Every structure is written in structure tokens, then in C-alpha cells.
């Protein structure tokens, strides 16, 4: 039996796990699980020999620091994944629980984006009732992240549920104002993720860059930034390069993914990732771009190709 580790937190009180999962599980991630279930045993278990033949450093230029989201490669044991990632020339793995932060350090890597108790996709900053728990969690996890060299922790805007944008904006600002000092004191950045509400996360409030930017302007902290997911914002807005150039000062982290489908970022999808990455580099960005696509082919082959593509 293959155990799937879900990438984002959800409400443990939910009576039905599947019905309350963030919608990527119902869409692209659901398809991914189905692919695993129907794959042959040799493919599903991904024996090391299948990717041991792929070796050598991929990163040549390194002007843009690249990372990779762990959940997309959950069928590979973490130590094996760390070895493969380090061999490619990557320096980080994204979206890790605190229990895994030490493991990646043992392979000379860092967790570029950690979970620190910032709520869940549907239930987070836009509801004041969530602020106490989020603040308490970050007060505990952010100092530990700093000690482990984790530069960023993730949080979310939450679902609308009929809430006006003005109320949500005020609530998100209030929640982030409660945690920005501990982030500033510890040199860790709290990143709030922008997600699409058209395909994957129905009703999500932070589904357009201007909303997130208004929150960032009001909070006005160097340690509170947006996680700009290129896949999600291509679906909602397009005009990715212009948006990045105009708002780069509010962005602390990037995610990749092919559109449509959230699979490989190669020529099978519509985004021009080399051009996007060059635009990011030209803004002076010094953080991480993390690959968060679900491979349809051999996962490490796809990752190696993506790393090479973005090594501008």
C-alpha cells in the first residue's frame, strides 16, 4: 500500500476528509492519486535504479535559487530524495513539516518553506477567530525555524464564505500584524500564498495579486510577503511577467506548475518559464523559486528538466 502525504493542512474536525480537502486534492492531486493507483507496481514503487541512471549536476548558472516541493515526490523516501536533489545542485526542499527540517540539513539542504501552524487554505487569516491559534503557533514555530535555517513559513488568506473584500483585508492585516514582530525578530519571513479559485481552490479569498498586495502594503513588514504561485496566478490573471515586475517588492517566494494541469513546465503547457525566471532574476530577487508541479513521467527526469529550464 502506498501512503500519500497531503501537502496542505486541513481541518481535523471535518467529518469527511475527502469532502473538506482543499480542491487540488479533488482536481489535479486527485488525478495524481488515481495515477498512482493504476500504475504498475514497478512504476508506482519507483525503484532507485529507475532514477539512479540520471546523475550529475544540473544547476550551472545558479542566478535563481531553485527548490522543490516535497509533496510532489512523496513516493520517494525523503533521504533518497535529498540525495537526488543535492546531486542536481539544488540547495533546498519546499513545504516540509518541522519533523523533516533536520533530515534535509543532514544532506546539506535547507527547508525553503516550512509549515509552522499558519492555518489551512480555507481557514486562516481572513477570519479573526483563527488569529489566536495562528499567532500562538507562529510564536512557537518561528524561533525554531530560525534555529534550523528555515527562511520562510507559510500561511493562507482563507475562503470567502460571502465575506466582503474590505472586511477580509482588514482581518488579514490584523492577523499578520500580530505575528510580524516575531518574524522580524527571528529573521524568518511569513509568506501568504496566492491561489486560484477558478480550478483548484473554490472560494479562496487571496485569488488575485492586487488583493494580496494591498494586504502587504498595509502590514508594511520586510518579513511578511506573498507567495506568488505562478501556476495559480496564470489561471486567474495571466500577464505574469508584468505583474512580477510591478509587485516584486511584495513577493518573498515563488512556485511553479504547468498550465493547464499543474504538470511538467515544459513545452506541453502555455507558460514560458525561462522568460518568467529571467524576469524574476532581473528584479533582484534573492529568495527561492520552488517547483510544485506533479510529474506525469519519471519524476526525477521531469525535475531535472525543470531545473535546467529555470537555470537562467
Give a verbal description of the structure.
- The chain has 312 residues and is an alpha/beta fold.
- The protein has one domain: TIM Barrel.
- 41% of the residues lie in helices and 13% in strands.
- The protein is built from 13 helices and 8 strands.
- It has helices at 17-20, 28-38, 41-45, 49-52, 78-88, 101-105, 131-147, 165-186, 209-219, 230-236, 240-247, 273-282, 299-310; strands spanning 65-68, 92-96, 110-115, 152-156, 189-193, 224-229, 251-256, 288-291.
- The protein has an 8-stranded parallel sheet with strand order 1-8-7-6-5-4-3-2.
- It starts with 16 loop residues before the first helix and ends with a helix.
- Mean pLDDT is 87; it is low at 1-7 and 9-53.
Topology:
Blueprint: H1 17-20, H2 28-38, H3 41-45, H4 49-52, E1 65-68, H5 78-88, E2 92-96, H6 101-105, E3 110-115, H7 131-147, E4 152-156, H8 165-186, E5 189-193, H9 209-219, E6 224-229, H10 230-236, H11 240-247, E7 251-256, H12 273-282, E8 288-291, H13 299-310
Parallel strand pairs: 1-8, 2-3, 3-4, 4-5, 5-6, 6-7, 7-8
Helix pairs in contact: 7-8, 8-9, 11-12
Query: Mind summarizing the main beta sheet?
Result: 8 strands, parallel
CATH architectural grouping: Alpha-Beta Barrel
Distance between the terminal alpha carbons, to the nearest Å? Answer: 40 Å
Strand order of the largest sheet: 1-8-7-6-5-4-3-2
Q: Could you tell me the number of beta strands? A: 8
Give the number of domains.
Answer: 1
CATH fourth-tier homologous superfamily: Divalent-metal-dependent TIM barrel enzymes
* CATH C-level category: Alpha Beta
Uncertain runs with pLDDT below 50, 5 residues or more? 1-7, 9-53
Number of helices: 13
By oligomeric state, this entry counts as single chain
Mean pLDDT metric:
87
| Broad structural category | alpha/beta
* Residues in β-strands, percent: 5-15%
The radius of gyration is 18 Å
